[in-house]
Amino acid sequence: MKTFLKRAWTEIHLDRLKDNFTELKKLTDETHTQVACVVKANAYGHDDENIVPFLEGLGAKFFLVSNIKEAEKVRRCGSGSEILILGHTPAEYAAELAENDIIQAAVSEEYARELSEEAVKCGVKVKIHLAIDTGMGRIGICVYDDDSCRRAAEQAERVSRLEGVILDGVFTHYASADSYAEDDEKYTEMQTELFFKTCGYIKEKGVKLRHTHCLNSAGGAFHYDSRSTLVRYGIMLYGLKPDVSLDMPCELKPVMDLKAAVSYVKQLKAGSYVSYGRIFRADHDITAATIPIGYADGYARNLSGKAHVIINGRKAPIIGRVCMDQLMADVTGIPDVKEGTTVTLIGTDGNETITADDLAGMYGTIGYEVICGISKRIPRVIYKGDEISDVVEYY
């Protein structure tokens, strides 16, 4: 069996990923829409080198990343699937994009022209998807009424005639598809209408587009539209909700657990202080456990005095400030806590569960940030069923 340093680690459960992928496919009319898997940020912290081949084995054929380095890493995983970079790539990398058969998001006509000029110099052609900004305000050609949709179509038509690029598709991104609020739902409907109106005008100009896509995770779950040729599933693939308040149309299973091992157990008298700043003072005798994980590992300092951990099936509150490499918990009354006892920081032990969304809610962020923030000091222990299939240690 593969071994690893049992200080702190994540457990990545591929069987749960398979279940999530299967559930998401059920939400999709695959005669019109292809499921695309977002694996940026090291597959949201889950280890892309394991996640990508596993998803390909399940039938995934389209992946999305943030930058060229991530895209090339996916290629090095042996992937023959399509890869789309959603973020910025300087035009000088045109040859690398073409050589690795990577599709690049084009944020504007000007960028497409720069990329084309560089590609021509290198004797290559680069596939692109042109971004249309329907209301996210981040990247893309802005559209907000009929006239602007027509102007965007004119720009797309000019881009399609550039010598060094192949206009393979256009896309947009929803700003608030993960909200039930009436004004947010209307806003998403407006974005959809503007996008497909623009697509219609582009096609009227004789431009053939292989892909027109607008659906992110929340879009696929709550605003599915068969006109979108891709649905870009990210956070839901890994078992988290786009927004914690949402009632999901399918069952999702968190793929990542976060665990550690107790390093020290001590008895503290009433009046004893714990950790920096002496913000915790025991008002009675307690048993405290030191756990070797901290904010340098991605367990936020903002969880100090707020979060719990689970030890031997029972919740224990964190006491004092979370340190860079360690934290302390009050384990008074919990039997058999000793050095080496497993601690669950995200996951389930017995009847108790702590989710990434639970932690996120304690310091005003989202589950995405929690799982993406688990640092590379933490090994990724990959499970297939109950068996460890791989251990990824970045150090």
Describe the protein in words.
It is a single chain. This protein has 2 domains: 28-238, Alanine racemase (TIM Barrel, Alpha-Beta Barrel), CATH 3.20.20.10; 256-392, Lyase, Ornithine Decarboxylase, Chain A, domain 1, CATH 2.40.37. It starts with 7 loop residues before the first strand and ends with a strand. Strands 1, 11, 12, 15, 16, 17, 18, 19, 20, 21 and 22 form an 11-stranded mixed sheet that branches. Strands 2, 3, 4, 5, 6, 7, 8, 9 and 10 form a 9-stranded parallel sheet that branches. Helix 7 packs across helix 8 (182-204). The chain has helices at residues 14-26, 40-45, 48-57, 68-76, 94-99, 109-122, 146-160, 182-204, 217-222, 356-362, 367-372; strands at 8-13, 34-38, 62-65, 82-85, 103-106, 126-133, 141-142, 165-171, 211-213, 230-233, 256-261, 264-268, 273-274, 280-281, 286-291, 308-311, 314-319, 327-330, 342-349, 352-354, 380-384, 387-392. The protein has 11 helices and 22 strands.
Summarize the structure.
This protein is an alpha/beta fold and 395 residues long. 29% of the residues lie in helices and 26% in strands. Strands 1, 11, 12, 15, 16, 17, 18, 19, 20, 21 and 22 form an 11-stranded mixed beta sheet that branches. Strands 2, 3, 4, 5, 6, 7, 8, 9 and 10 form a 9-stranded parallel beta sheet that branches. A two-stranded antiparallel sheet has the order 13-14.
Question: Which helices and strands, and how do they pair?
Answer:
Layout: E1 8-13, H1 14-26, E2 34-38, H2 40-45, H3 48-57, E3 62-65, H4 68-76, E4 82-85, H5 94-99, E5 103-106, H6 109-122, E6 126-133, E7 141-142, H7 146-160, E8 165-171, H8 182-204, E9 211-213, H9 217-222, E10 230-233, E11 256-261, E12 264-268, E13 273-274, E14 280-281, E15 286-291, E16 308-311, E17 314-319, E18 327-330, E19 342-349, E20 352-354, H10 356-362, H11 367-372, E21 380-384, E22 387-392
Parallel strand pairs: 1-21, 2-3, 2-10, 3-4, 4-5, 5-6, 6-7, 6-8, 8-9
Antiparallel strand pairs: 1-11, 11-19, 12-15, 13-14, 15-18, 16-17, 16-19, 17-18, 19-20, 21-22
